[in-house]
């Protein structure tokens, strides 16, 4: 382990890597702060630019964007009352009240430090847990990996509890799109319509650029979302929130544990941990009536949790090859185009990449803290960027990135089709998170299913004859059924009582 850490430090210390990481952190914070964008879109935009970089340096750059985007989302929440990303949804409730009261610096300062407190310890846990989980996962067969992928997709779909059928439709649509190209195991061509370019399937980059970035820009272009409130706010220099942190030690520990555990669950990520941590802080507080009126406890809790989920989401990503959230799905795509094969053998086969992920996230968190401390007075300026200039530039970068990634004009056509698919999904109310994560997991799901079936003499029953796969499938089915019928069952029980 020591030699790999030293090698990662040597790569990290190079001028090119440090410069790219700082650029990634700053741009991630900016995109994370602007409502409607987020660090995920920036990751997709820069992905084609990383093809010519050394894989280790490219991953460090993308990890910096990941951490910066997650951390920067609180800026919009505090100054505008509009979260820059779902990672800071609950931060709005109390953070924006500090701005209304004329003291945004207290909330911004607490958020900046809370982000660092959430990220670094979770990465240390990730570093210790991944080798253990990978060692166990190596002993699993295709039955267990199919069940694990199916369980992960079920958890992702359950995010759409308001309409789980649309979540299932989004996942099914992703599997249908994933069927385009050569079938795994047997190599049969599917839905290629005689096109040479479709034989390799829909490239990850084109799908990400179209569904995730391009469609978002098309949908948001007409909205001049910059807030007048932000232009009127004046932010002074950072103030160390020592007293606020000291008064919230228990709150910080509880929120960190919540963020880490929720982050481990595939598809849950920072958005859910943010909400759960806020609710837990309010219920455990001695003065819950102050929440929503400018309580610093309600600012610290969600920001610690959403950044703790960074380390949590990377645990299944590194040890199993299953992304913990949408951002790690993008990282998985980046590793794929760099030729890195993810899964339980990733730590053994690509130790330099894995340890760079650990260190890059921790160093990125330190860079984020330093930049937020020094640059806090310019935060309102970030939110004044005119959208009618920003969105056309991003649209050009989307198509340019598609061309660079594949080297042909057909990639631009595919990206445009994926953009229209993303617009259709938005019109139909289909969530993009289940679509993206299912698309990423599609190969793992189908390949292991076909391998398991080829080894089996009992058909589908074989998945329930192996303890691990049986438990995972039962959990997945139970989770879907609970989200479908749980509320109705509770209502019936309450009526009988």
Describe the structure.
A hairpin with a 6-residue loop joins strand 1 and strand 2 (189-190). A two-stranded antiparallel ribbon has the order 1-2. The chain is built from 22 helices and 2 strands. The chain has one domain (2-496). It has helices at 2-12, 15-33, 39-46, 55-80, 91-100, 104-137, 142-157, 164-178, 204-220, 228-232, 242-246, 249-264, 269-284, 297-320, 326-337, 346-349, 351-375, 379-382, 387-406, 410-428, 432-455, 467-496, and strands at residues 181-182, 189-190. Helix 2 crosses helix 3 (39-46) and helix 19 (387-406) packs across helix 20. The protein is 72% helix and 1% strand. With 497 residues, it is an all-alpha fold.
Key attributes of the depicted protein:
single chain, two-stranded antiparallel sheet, mainly alpha
Brief overview:
This protein has 497 residues and is mostly helical. Helix content is 72%, strand content 1%.
SS element count, helices = 22
Q: Total number of β-strand segments?
A: 2
Low-confidence stretches: 225-231
> Structural class per helix/strand content?
mainly alpha
Reported for the largest beta sheet, the result is: 2 strands, antiparallel
Order of helices and strands: HHHHHHHHEEHHHHHHHHHHHHHH
Mean pLDDT rating? 81
């Amino acid at each position: 382990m020591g030699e790999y850490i030293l090698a990662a430090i040597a790569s990290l210390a190079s001028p090119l890597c440090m410069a790219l990481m700082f650029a990634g952190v700053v741009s991630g914070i900016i995109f994370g702060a602007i409502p409607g964008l987020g660090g995920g879109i920036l990751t997709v935009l820069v992905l084609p630019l990383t093809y010519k970089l050394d894989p280790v340096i490219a991953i460090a750059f993308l990890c910096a964007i990941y951490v910066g985007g997650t951390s920067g989302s609180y800026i919009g929440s505090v100054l505008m009352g509009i979260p820059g990303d779902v990672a800071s949804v609950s931060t709005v409730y109390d953070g924006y009240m500090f701005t209304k009261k004329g003291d945004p610096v207290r909330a911004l300062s607490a958020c900046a430090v809370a982000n660092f407190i959430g990220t670094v310890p979770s990465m240390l846990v990730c570093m210790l847990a991944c080798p253990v989980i990978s060692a166990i996962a190596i002993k699993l067969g295709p039955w267990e990996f199919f069940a694990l992928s199916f369980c992960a997709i079920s958890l992702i779909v359950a995010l759409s509890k308001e309409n789980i059928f649309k979540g299932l439709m989004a996942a099914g649509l992703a599997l249908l799109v994933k069927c385009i190209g050569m079938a795994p195991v047997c190599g049969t061509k599917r839905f290629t319509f005689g096109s040479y370019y479709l034989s390799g399937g829909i490239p990850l980059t084109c799908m990400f650029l179209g569904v995730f970035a391009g469609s978002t820009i098309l949908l948001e272009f007409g909205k001049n979302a910059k807030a007048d409130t932000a232009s009127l706010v004046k932010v002074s220099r950072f103030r160390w929130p020592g007293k606020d942190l000291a008064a919230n030690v228990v709150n910080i520990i509880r929120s960190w544990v919540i963020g880490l555990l929720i982050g481990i669950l595939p598809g849950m990520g920072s958005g859910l941990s943010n909400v759960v941590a806020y609710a837990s802080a309010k219920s455990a507080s001695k003065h819950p009536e102050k929440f929503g009126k400018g309580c610093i406890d309600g600012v610290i809790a969600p920001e610690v949790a959403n950044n703790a989920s960074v380390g949590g989401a990377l645990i299944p990503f590194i040890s199993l090859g299953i992304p913990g959230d949408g951002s790690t799905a993008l990282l998985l795509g980046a590793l794929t185009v760099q030729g890195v094969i993810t899964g339980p053998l990733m730590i053994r086969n690509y130790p330099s990449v894995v340890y760079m992920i650990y260190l890059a996230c921790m160093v990125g968190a330190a860079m984020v803290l330093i930049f937020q401390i020094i640059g806090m007075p310019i935060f309102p300026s970030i939110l004044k960027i005119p959208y009618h200039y920003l969105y056309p530039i991003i649209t050009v970068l989307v198509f340019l990135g598609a061309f660079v990634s594949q080297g042909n004009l057909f990639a631009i056509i595919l990206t445009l089709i994926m953009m229209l698919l993303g617009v259709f999904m938005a019109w139909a109310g289909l969530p993009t998170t289940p679509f993206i994560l299912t698309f990423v997991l599609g190969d793992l799901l189908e390949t292991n299913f076909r391998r398991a079936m080829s080894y089996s003499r009992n058909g589908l029953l074989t998945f329930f004859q192996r303890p691990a796969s049986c438990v995972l499938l039962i959990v997945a089915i139970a989770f879907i059924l609970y989200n479908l019928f749980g509320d109705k069952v509770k209502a019936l029980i309450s009526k009988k009582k």
